[in-house]
Automatic annotation (TrEMBL):
Function: Supplies octaprenyl diphosphate, the precursor for the side chain of the isoprenoid quinones ubiquinone and menaquinone.
Identification of the protein by name: Octaprenyl diphosphate synthase
Entry-linked SUPFAM superfamilies: Terpenoid synthases
Keywords: Magnesium, Metal-binding, Transferase
Record organism: Mycoplana dimorpha
Keyword Transferase included in the entry's annotation: yes
Pfam families (UniProt xref): polyprenyl_synt
PANTHER family, alphabetized: ALL TRANS-POLYPRENYL-DIPHOSPHATE SYNTHASE PDSS1 (PTHR12001:SF69), GERANYLGERANYL PYROPHOSPHATE SYNTHASE (PTHR12001)
Length: 338
């Protein structure tokens, strides 16, 4: 059983993505239609695998960021729809690849594609979706947008490899961990937000503001995700509580508990994470150590810090419903632990 993390700020408990959902509803319908169209193939297994994950209930926050970041500057074309779809395909491909690398059995409460169709199919369908994403980027005809998203794809892949290099290594530092999540998660948030002002053809300052917003929102989002693995509920996570522990992932709650613990505590962590002794009893002991040494509360504090940076990034921009919705997304991401 996880440890539910309380938050002090009452406003976060009421935060919602609904304002962003409402504002992007029309464009998201177009994105969803394009997703279904571009996920199609004469090779039967491709749409089966793709639709298994695409239809599994994710909030599609990243493509909504692209739509909002273009619309807040008055963009009225359709390039942002294609780029938002590209962003979602990049994200979906990453999930398919992640589940193979992590040997995950559950994603958003459903069996992962790899457990149904196998690892090879999951990787290859992920590659297909990446190919479709880049085709849509080319159709948009913006070299700047193509540069931002293709660079993000490279950084994400580097993050995957970096995570492998630090897996089950208790000497991993907080800086190492932040480098991984900046590459694996935050880079796509940043790119998704940045391509909006690019297609809206606004200035560099607006583009930088949205990129900073996306990067720091992504860091906050992943920090909360990693706290939820030890302090959430399976129904909310869409996976089992403690999966990161069982897979030997080095996340911030573990890093903090390791560095603040006793020699005896560090012996436990080496056996559990590096030695793979991750049974239920050891998970409960790990939860106790993480709670004792403030691993959860301080991880959430870090998330709130990056959320504040994301909020400050948007501060110079004119007030609008779009800006308000993007700001509320920050509170929503952090409030997921409440």
């Amino acid at each position: 059983m996880g440890v539910v993390i309380p938050l002090d700020e009452g406003k976060n408990k009421m935060a919602s993505v609904q304002p962003l959902v409402d504002l992007t509803k029309g464009d998201m319908e177009r994105v969803n239609q394009l997703i279904l169209s571009k996920a199609g193939s004469d090779v039967q297994m491709i749409p089966e695998v793709a639709n298994h994950l695409i239809s599994s209930g994710g909030k599609r926050l990243r493509p909504m960021l692209t739509l909002a970041a273009a619309s807040m500057f008055g963009y009225a074309g359709d390039h942002h729809v294609k780029l938002a779809t590209s962003v979602e395909f990049m994200h979906t491909a990453t999930l398919l690849h992640d589940d193979v690398v992590d040997e995950s059995d559950l994603r958003r409460g459903k069996s992962t594609a790899r457990t149904i169709w196998g690892n090879q199919a999951s990787v290859l369908v992920g590659d297909f979706l990446l190919g479709q994403a880049f085709k849509m980027m080319v159709e948009v005809g913006s070299l700047e947008a193509l540069d931002v998203l293709s660079s993000a794809a490279t950084v994400i892949a580097e993050g995957e490899v970096l995570q492998l290099s630090v897996a089950k290594n208790m000497e991993t530092t907080e800086d190492d961990y932040l480098e991984v999540i900046r590459a694996k998660t935050a880079a796509l948030f940043a790119a998704a937000a940045e391509v909006g002002p690019i297609v809206a053809n606004v200035g560099r300052s607006e583009r930088n503001a949205l990129r900073s917003y996306g990067m720091n929102l992504g860091l906050a989002f992943q920090l909360v995700d990693d706290a939820l693995d030890y302090g959430g509920k399976a129904a909310d996570l869409g996976k089992n509580v403690g999966d990161d522990f069982r897979e030997g992932k080095i996340t911030l709650p573990v890093i903090l508990a390791w560095r603040r613990g006793t020699a005896e505590d560090r012996t436990f962590w080496r056996k559990a994470i590096e030695g793979g002794e991750s049974d239920e009893a050891n998970l409960q002991h790990a939860l106790g150590l993480i709670t004792r040494y403030g691993g959860l509360s301080d991880t959430i504090a870090r998330a709130q810090h990056y959320g504040t940076i994301a909020r400050d990034a948007l501060a110079p921009l004119p007030e609008s419903p779009w800006k308000s919705a993007l700001l509320e997304v920050i509170d929503f991401c952090v409030s997921r632990v409440s």
